[in-house]
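cron nightly-structures :: item 1 of 1
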Amino acid sequence: MKVRNSLRSLKNKPGAQVARRRGMTFVINKKDPRSKTRQG
């Protein structure tokens, strides 16, 4: 499992989308389905 400090480096990947749900910030990647993060 990879751990990143900030979402900024993950949202720069191709296919990444930033979504806000229930007050949390998620990064979802359609091209790389295993790449999911949440913050907050």
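cron nightly-structures :: done
Residues 28 and 34 are 9 Å apart (CA to CA).
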